[in-house]
Each structure stands twice: as C-alpha cells, then as structure tokens.
Amino acid sequence: MRYFLWTVGCQMNVADSKKLAAGFERLGLERAPDAASADVAVVNTCSVRQHAEDRAASMLGRLRLLKEARPAFKIAVMGCMVGPRAEALERRFPFVDAFARPQQFAPVLALAEEPAEDLGGEFWPSTFAAPDGPTAFVPVVHGCDKFCTYCIVPYRRGRERSRPINEIAREVAWLTARGVREVTLLGQTVEAYGHDLDGQPDLGDLMRALSADERLARIRFLTSYPKDMTARILAAVAGLPKVMECFSLPVQAGSDAVLASMRRGYAKAGYVAKVAEVRALMPDAGITTDIIVGYPGETEADFAETLALLEELRFDKVHVAAYSPRPGTIAHRTMADDVPAEVKAERLQRVQAVEERISRERNAACLGTVQTILVEGVNAKGQPYGRTRAGRLVHLDAPARAGALADVRIEHAGPFALRGTALDALALV
Ligand code: SF4
After folding, report:
1. How many domains does the structure of the chain reveal?
2. Whose C-alpha lies nearest to ligand 1, atom 2?
3. Which residues of 134-162 are buried (b: 16+ CB within 10 A; e: fewer)?
4. Using CA positions, which residue lies closest to atom 4 of ligand 1?
5. Does the CB atom of residue 153 touch ligand 1 within 6 A?
6. Domain check: are 360 and 378 in the same one?
7. Over the stretch 253-275, which tens digit does the pLDDT of each residue have?
8. Domain containing residue 209
9. Whose CA is nearest to atom 8 of ligand 1?
C-alpha cells in the first residue's frame, strides 16, 4: 500500500505529518509521490487562517475526483480543522473516510488496513520522523493553555502536555545519528515546557540535557510567549553555546486596549520590558514577531500604536496577518468583525512597508561581518543556504556541504536575506 500526505500550517503540523509518515512506514506502507498513485491520502489541515482552510478544501475537491474514479481510494482529514465533533465536516465532505484531531493518528492509520500496532502512547515515544536534511523539528510540549480570544489552537490541540526529557533526548540522539546537526524545539508556547512533569524541569534544563549530545551543533526553539520566558530560561539561552540567540516572540498588537481584548496576558510595557531583558543579556539576539491587523474594535489610533511599537523595537522580521474570525473562538462568539476588509488590507500593507524597511536596515548592519551558518541545503536557484545564530537567512555564492558549519563574510544584504562567501574551505564541497 502507498500513502500520500499533504500538509498546510505551522511547524507543529509539519512535525505531526512527519511522525504520521514514520507510523505508516512502520506499518509497511510506502510514500507515494502524488495522490493519484496512492491508496490512502491524508490532508493535514490548519484552521488558524481562512486561507489555510480554503487550500485544504480545494485539495479535498481534487481528492474527491480520484475517489469517484477509484472508490477503494481512502481519504483522511487530520489537524486543526477537525474539532471534537466532526458532524459539520462529515456533511461538507461526505466522501472522507476518517476525521482525526491533531496528533490523533489511530483513525488515520486504521485506513491502512494493516495489522494495528501499539505505537507506544500519545507521543509515540519509539516512533521518530526520519530527517530529510541536517535540521529537524522536535515537538517538546503539545497544546496550549492560553486561550487568546482569536485562536483555535487550545480547542484543537488541547492543554499543555510536555514530553519527558529522556524521551526527547532519545529522539535527538536518533536524529543526530542520522546526520541532523540542528534541532528546533517546538511548542505553541515553548517556554511552558515541563511545568506538568515530575520535578518541573524547564526549557533551560531540557536545552542543557540536549547540549550534551556531541553530534548536535545547534538548538533552536519556538514559539515564545512573553509571560513564560523566565529569567532562568533566558540565562540558559544566553549561557549555552549550542543554543541560538533567536526568538520568535509574537506581540500581535501595540495597543493595550487591543492586547487586553485579545487576552494576551500582557500589556505593551511588559512586552517591551521582556525584549529589553533579552537584548541586555544577548545584544545580537534575533527577534521576530507576529502582528494581527484589523482585530475587532481596532481603531486607527490603536493601529498607530502597533506601528510605533515596530519602530521602537525594530524586529528582525514581522509576520503580519489580517484578522479573520475563526469559528469556535471567543472572538468569533462575542465580537463583531467590524474593521472593513479594505482597512485591514491597507493596515497590512503599512506594516509590511515598515517591516521591509527595518529588516533591510538590520540586515545591512551585517554587511562586512563574518557570520557562522549551518548549511541547510540548496534553494531552487541551486544556491546553498543556512541561518546565522540570530536566524538570518544567508545564501552562499559557492557550493557548500549540507550540514557544515561555515564562517561566511556577508557581502550583500536585502530585506529578506543576506548573501556571502564561505571563508572556511572545509565547508565547501
Ligand atoms: S498563546 Fe494564544 S495565540 Fe498562541 S497558541 Fe496559545 S492561544 Fe493560540
């Protein structure tokens, strides 16, 4: 039997799909290059934005045609589009054979019609996703307890549950034995790691344990949540050489009124203080953020505060999205989506313009410096690429070996990436 996997959404979804693929392969299935040549297809969905749902629906439309021609073909829908009750989805997509919530792999694997195997409990501790390069994502804490008003994640991925340190260390050792040199520790709020485990280890304890793996060169982590970033965790990031000074720290808005309405759990001053704490300890840290424009009730004055915050904090990268109400969330139930679409579009463009200018300026400050990157692979133009400690994307002018750590002199800086020449002959092919 052959399986086909289609994934949209965050790194956690990508990690789930890789784990599911490992489960299929453990049951003896082979990966198919496309849905047409598969016996079972899985659509791993995301509900965070309407656009992601639309893409999944259009993929399902294509799969329906395959099933009409070949009724034995099985289709599963997994991920954040699937809530505790799937009746509405069953009515909308009656040709789908199985619906499964995020990480609920059993109903999907049941479609394989192979003898069921106990994969070892909720986190499949002995089933690891095969790496496809020198970097890998490793989920360490699942779910989220924060319940921001606009977000569907806590309802779909459940409460925070951490994997034990020894289990994660075993997975990382398995990965590094297969050529992985950098792992990114994943959590919706990654600093929440460990509060539910015996002895309450924190993310710093986990990083310390993983640093002992001699084959591992780099540790990254995302996504950060300001209130969970303790001084102890920040000291671990600053003090452990293998941990990259790179933070994905969503702020979402610059107005206290909007932050309170979003129930983000902090005000602007608290967020600014957290960034100052990071930069005091790690002056070269890379910090990226997420912004939502057009949240219910966002006035022009609120939005101006967001722009002012971007100017004040000068992030390395800003991911911006226009608010879209997600059914099942507090905001969808209780707030009118009252910012007109054209205003959202205009605010989105204004954020993008500020972000592009600041990113360009911050990248330009790297010109002439030497940065160490881990060569991750080759882009569509055949150029090797990797990331600096702070997370900046760097393209190389000459071939380089994937998995090598290379010192690179930065010779060109654009808003989205840097370009340079590797100084270290050992990194070259
Ligand atoms: S912290 Fe808020 S936005 Fe992030 S996953 Fe949790 S509920 Fe969603």
Report:
1. 3
2. 148
3. bbbbbbbbbbbebebbbbbbbbbbbebeb
4. 188
5. yes
6. no
7. 999 999 999 999 999 999 999 99
8. 135-364
9. 151
